[in-house]
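User: Can you model how flavin-adenine dinucleotide sits in this protein?
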Amino acid sequence: MIYSDQSPITYQDALPDSVDVVIIGAGIIGISTAWFLAKSGVSVLVCDKGRVAGEQSSRNWGWIRQQARDPAELPIAIDSINTWESLSRELGTDIGFTRQGVLYLAETEAQLTQYEKWLNTAAQHQLDTRMLSSTEVDALIKDKPGQWQGGMYTASDGRAEPFKAVPALAKALRECGGLIREGCAVRSVDVQTGKVGGVITENGRVAARSVVCAGGAWSTLFMANMGVYLPQLSVRATVARTAPVPDIYSGSATLGEIAIRRRQDGGYTVATSNTNEHFIGADSFRYLRKFLPALASSVGLIRLRFGENIIARLLPVRRWQDDEISPFEQTRVLNPAPSQAAIKKMRLGLTNRLPKLADVAIEEAWAGMIDVMPDVVPVMDQVAEYPGLFLATGFSGHGFGIGPGAGRVMADLVMGRTATHDLSRFRLSRFCDGSTMRPGPGL
Ligand SMILES: Cc1cc2nc3c(=O)[nH]c(=O)nc-3n(C[C@H](O)[C@H](O)[C@H](O)COP(=O)(O)OP(=O)(O)OC[C@H]3O[C@@H](n4cnc5c(N)ncnc54)[C@H](O)[C@@H]3O)c2cc1C
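Assistant: Here's the modeled complex, given as structure tokens:
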């Protein structure tokens, strides 16, 4: 299940004159950040132009993965999964959290050798990641034995149901005093004598000493209007869910060209690894140079498309006045159509890899727009040009699992507390201080 602009509005808190912190975006990142702030006694307002978890945060696969993370992300991902675990007990709603492992399967020795390179990073953090033999894989995946050379497995990795988890956390935020307003676009940041003074929303101004932009795939546009360079591109990814079927594997796994995750409702969430698409527009050219290393390392994984609305994408509105309707009000929820080619590949992949699921009904298919950074790791930082403005965006296809961990990081940053993790890899200035882009381990 996903949310769209057809979903009922749940939160319509009146806009206060002022709060300590305004958060732009009610996805997992914005809601988690607000939750940690509210728990520390900071007054917060979360504004979303659409719905809580309307975009990526209800549409993702639901993997909560430590395995194969960028080394700089891993400590935050470990903190995050532990937070998911405690949240699943605290929230009072069953969000489907369980630690059933993440498994990457390999058909060749070369693939296994590639995976093995990550074991050192895992060992540095006492993670339980290990290599599995082909027999061990067959004991885990109860379908078509003998097709895998082995795999890499982290038994402590988890999964949850995104469409339940993020709304449950929003409810908890509301219960500890945080304000949420859906259907409320933030047009701009109100800057007073060089410092953040609040936000201008479509429903009026709210004063605040800090603002966090957690706008997912919209963040680059929001920052462009403020003259801040944030090279971020969107990639369409298609997902499907099957009808309930017997349990052939209880965790999350990549099996060659398909990926599956067992669902709480007894079905599987299915996706393909090579059907993500970027629709070419002005930003593709604007940010091309920064993205070259990532493009080179993801050849065959991301397809470039022209698609519909090419003129609008080539000539996008990038500046508007505070009293003008902004692009955020024109698209309440990004709800791209799923790719039919991707759905066909899923069916083919299931038939080839998991014959027991070959004929299972696909009950729903959807797509989401992933916000990708050139080095495939997010930005978590304060914007130097605007003291009091913070950015938490660009989680590059793996922000659900790390969401609560990132929320804690952002809350600490906003409150001026000493960071508990090394955040240098996530600084905004890496895109303009001459740093070489080193892509992390992929989408
Ligand atoms: C198909 C797919 C599969 C994925 N699978 C996984 C997975 O298995 N595991 C994993 O860890 N991650 C996964 N991800 C990535 C993960 O979903 C995202 O990284 C994460 O949800 C990002 O959260 P967010 O809060 O930053 O952004 P979003 O969830 O996109 O939320 C941003 C919100 O900001 C709002 N907004 C933007 N601009 C404004 C504005 N000006 N005013 C008001 N509101 C605004 C939007 O309406 C939106 O609701 C996947 C993503 C996709 C699309």
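A couple of observations from the model: The two ends are 22 Å apart (CA to CA). The longest helix spans residues 74-90.
User: Helpful, thanks.
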